[in-house]
Amino acid sequence: xxxxxxxxxxxxxxxxxxxxxxxxxxxxxxxxxxxxxxxxxxxxxxxxxxxxxxxxxxxxxxxxxxxxxxxxxxxxxxxxxxxxxxxxxxxxxxxxxxxxxxxxxxxxxxxxxxxxxxxxxxxxxxxxxxxxxxxxxxxxxxxxxxxxxxxxxxxxxxxxxxxxxxxxxxxxxxxxxxxxxxxxxxxxxxxxxxxxxxxxxxxxxxxxxxxxxxxxxxxxxxxxxxxxxxxxxxxxxxxxxxxxxxxxxxxxxxxxxxxxxxxxxxxxxxxxxxxxxxxxxxxxxxxxxxxxxxxxxxxxxxxxxxxxxxxxxxxxxxxxxxxx
Length: 324
Description:
- The protein has helices at 16-28, 33-40, 48-59, 82-91, 103-106, 111-131, 198-213, 254-270, 287-293; strands spanning 31-32, 63-67, 76-80, 140-142, 146-147, 160-161, 165-174, 180-192, 219-220, 224-225, 244-249, 282-286, 301-302, 321-322.
- It is α+β, with helices and mostly antiparallel strands.
- Helix 2 (33-40) crosses helix 3 (48-59), helix 6 runs parallel beside helix 9 (287-293) and helix 7 (198-213) packs across helix 8 (254-270).
- The radius of gyration is 21 Å and the shape is globular.
- The protein starts with 15 loop residues before the first helix and ends with a strand.
């Protein structure tokens, strides 16, 4: 996976760090100075330098900030302005996104959910550094739409699956001959801060199972399906193997999160729509475990099957893709 290139440091007279901040804010929508420091300057002992660069970007109209709703100290959360988005998009290094953070959205109740998604990505980045793997500041992408049925795109939730994030991670393991094997692991990540009903969370699993089987049907004439028009599953055009599904719980005491995980497993086991998808690799853990122990620890409980926490979602599978 190539290292993402950032904007030219000479653009708009910004420092190299200022140029790195903009694409990261653009991709991840809303970040604190602490999160940006850990992502871009992990050796720094304070957020002072990052905050100074944010003030420069703010002075040039490229970023803005909203006060964190849960902070008594008035912590600021940063996002790119419309002008900042245009600067990033003009660089051509990131695919343009239709969604843009606004002042109202940045101040909304979605703050904590957005920050939790980014904490998840940050946990993968930090453990990748420790292990010598590859997962960088731009290696997770929020809310990527995946079509799960043919027909009218205006059907919204019925037509599309939208994970909270799609994350890519390259894991390196030694081989018997002294070499290394590089394995690309792709994850569909869902963050639940104890605000979603378990039934709705289980319904998301069904949507993933439907996407795993969804095969687009070509049409002829006025939307009539072509006879015998078989195509491969839609996911194969985007991923070398079907992504692993990681459900990450947060926002409640440990005991309550454990009960939610048990309830989710019970609903999944009772859902006949999931049984044909027994090869669906899906597991549940907590954000705290992911932060403290890392993705390769036995912290993930399979949603289907054995209830013992394992590292199974991070093991190479028969269909996992090797990274060049």
